[in-house]
Amino acid sequence: MTVMARDRGYDELLGDVRGRRVLVWTCNTCARLCNIGGREAGDRLASKLSEDGVEVAGCVCSSAACFMTKADRMASEAEGEYDLVVSLTCDMGARNAVEATGREVLNPVVTFGTGYLDRQGRNRLATVVCGKVVYDEDAEAVAERNGCSMTPFV
Asked: Domain of 69?
């Protein structure tokens, strides 16, 4: 899985999207497992943005938004007009959002790299080279150290 965390709080995100017509774009795999995205978190963010006066076209979600075919399907499911995609995905999911929608994409997420869920369900950031573990650390600690958070916006 890909380990990621959000790079700002809700108030800052709100300031970044005010005056725009927004589509929330999220992944129900890695982003959900990292607690920053997924269907429920995406729907909550879309609802909160709407409550706070942002015009929201909706929320689209798929497993593995890093697959271009899934991104194309997400783009075809988007209803309403929007000029900005807020991507709660890894870098590749955001890249695919650009290609699939042809719109500007804001990705308030930092992609740290590969990782896994340990037996207790905690996110770990890890690197394996030639079958040898060369790095393995608690992903939440890495996120905090870098000023990020592995929690949903709302």
From this structure: 2-145
Query: What is the C-alpha to C-alpha distance for residues 108 and 114, in angstroms, rounded to an integer?
Result: 18
- Token duo for residue 93: 């999911």
CATH code of residue 76: 3.40.50
Residue-wise pLDDT for 55-74, tens only, equals: 999 999 999 999 999 999 99
CA separation for the pair 39, 55 (Å, rounded)? 19
The reported pLDDT for the residue numbered 15 is 98
Q: For 27-40, b where at least 16 C-beta lie within 10 A, e where not — what string?
A: bbbbbbbbbbbbbe
Written as one letter, the residue type at 32 is R
DSSP 8-state class, residue 154? -
